[in-house]
Amino acid sequence: MLKVSIIIPAWNEQDRITDCLDNALRQTVTPHEVIVVDNRSTDDTVAVVERYMREHPQAPVKLLHQDEEQGLIPTRNFGLNAATGDVLGRVDADCMLKPDWVEVVAGIFTEDRDAMGATGPVTYYDMPARRIALRGDDSVRRHTFRADGGKVLLFGSNMALRASAWHEVAGEVCRDREDVMHEDIDVSLHLLGRGFKTVYSERMICGISARRMDTSFKSFRNYMKRFKNTFEAHPQHWRTRKSERTLYLMYPWLHALFPVYQQYLESREINPALRIWFREQAKLARAQGDPLDDLPGIDVLVTETPTGVDGIDEISSSGMFDDDDDAHVADGLTAETPAAAAEDARDGAADAEHDAIVAAEEAVASNGPAIPPATSDQGVDASAESASAAKE
Fold it and tell me: What is the DSSP letter of 292?
C-alpha cells in the first residue's frame, strides 16, 4: 500500500490554514500524515494549527518549524525531507483539495511504477465560473506547461513526488536565494534531468485562491519573469510554448473581477472555502450513498432549504468546480415551481439557500468537520482493482 504525505509550507496563514487542513483530512483515503511547516510566521498560524491538533487528536497532523531561513524553498525542502510517506504531496496553505485527491494521487503512482512526479489542474474557488476555469486551466496545463518536447512540468500548488525521486534530487534543486525562479518548475527540470517521468492527471484536482491576482501589474510581471529565469538556469532544457502568454491575457480580467467578487461574498457573508468544503463533502456522501445527516450543519440545511431533502440533493450534486452561485442553485431548488411564479420563487430560494449555507458554515466552523481516524497503514492497495479505479 502506498502512503501519501501532504506537506503544507505556511507563512502568516492564520486565516486559511484551518480550511486547508479540513480538506486535506476529510478524504476518501486518509493521508498518512499532513505536515504543516511554519516559516517564521508573525501572525497566529502556529497557534491555530496547535489548537486544531488539540481539537482533532486523532488526525495525523504534524507541525514543524523551519526557522533557519526565510523562504518557500527551504521550508518546502524541510517538509519534504521530514515526510515518511511513499508519495509526497505538496500544496499551498490556501489550497482546497478534492475529497478524492489522496486516493487519486496514490492510484497514479500505483498504476504507473515509472511515474516519479504528478500534477493536475487547478481552479479558483473564490471566483465565479469555476467549471469554465477548470476546463481552461486543464487545457493550458496540458498544452503549455511542458518542456523538452512535451514532458510534464509540475505545479507547486498541486503536485506529488515519489519519495525516492525527491531524495534523489533533494541535494541538487536550486536554492534560488535571489527568489527569481519558479521553484516547482525547477524541481520538475531536475527530475527530467535525471530521466524521471512526470505525469499529468485531470482527476488530480485542487482549488486555489485567486488572491495572487489581486496584485499590481508590476508584481504580476515580475512573477511571469520567473518562467524565463528558471529555464535560463537550466540551459539544457527547452520549451516551445510559453504559458506566461496565456496568463498575461488572463490577468486583466481576473485582477478586475477578484475584488468585485470578494465584495459580493462579504456582502452575503459567504466563506468560499467553507462553502466548497460542505458542497464537496455533500457531493461525496451522495455519490457513495452515505447519509447526509453525518455532515456538520446538514440539519440546518434540511430545515431551511425550501424543498428540504430535494434541495439538499441539488446542493450536493454541485461540487467545488461547478458554477454553483446562488442563482444556479436556486434554479435547481425551484425546478418544480409553476412558470408564472418561477422568478419570485428563484429569488426566495436564493435567499433561503444562502441563509442555509451560512448557517451550515457556522456549524462546520463551530463543530469542525468529521475527520476519520487515522490508521498506520491507510493507503491504496497496489492492486489491479485500485489502479483501475484511479485510471484517467
Answer: G
Kindly report the number of other CB atoms within 10 A of residue 71's CB atom: 18
State the residue for C-alpha cell 456522501.
285
Q: CATH 3.90.550.10: which residues of the chain?
A: 4-266
DSSP bridge partners of 214: none
- Give strand pairing partners of 245: none
The helix/strand/coil state of 230 is helix
Q: Distance (Å, rounded) from C-alpha 276 to C-alpha 281? A: 8
Distances (CA, A) of 118 to 157, 191, 204: 12, 11, 9
| Ordered DSSP codes for 105-119 | HHHHHHH-TTEEEEE
Helix (H) or strand (E) holding 302: helix 298-304
Cell 511554519 identifies what position?
A: 38
pLDDT at 340: 35
Q: Confidence class of residue 245 from pLDDT cuts 50, 70 and 90?
A: confident
CB 161 within 8 A of CB 88: yes
CA distance 74 to 72: 6
- Residue 202 to residue 120: CA distance in whole angstroms: 5
Whether residue 100 is predicted with pLDDT greater than 60 in this model: the reply is yes
pTM, full prediction? 0.78
For 298, the 3-state DSSP assignment is: helix
Radius of gyration of the chain (CA): 21
Q: Which residues pair with 119 in a beta bridge?
A: 159, 200
Q: pLDDT, tens digit, for every residue of 16-64?
A: 999 999 999 999 999 999 999 999 999 999 999 999 999 999 999 999 9
Which CATH code, of 3.90.550.10, 3.10.290.10, 2.40.30.10, 3.40.50.720, is assigned to 4-266? 3.90.550.10
d(CA 21, CA 212) in angstroms, rounded, equals: 20
Relative to beta strand 206-208, strand 96-97 is antiparallel
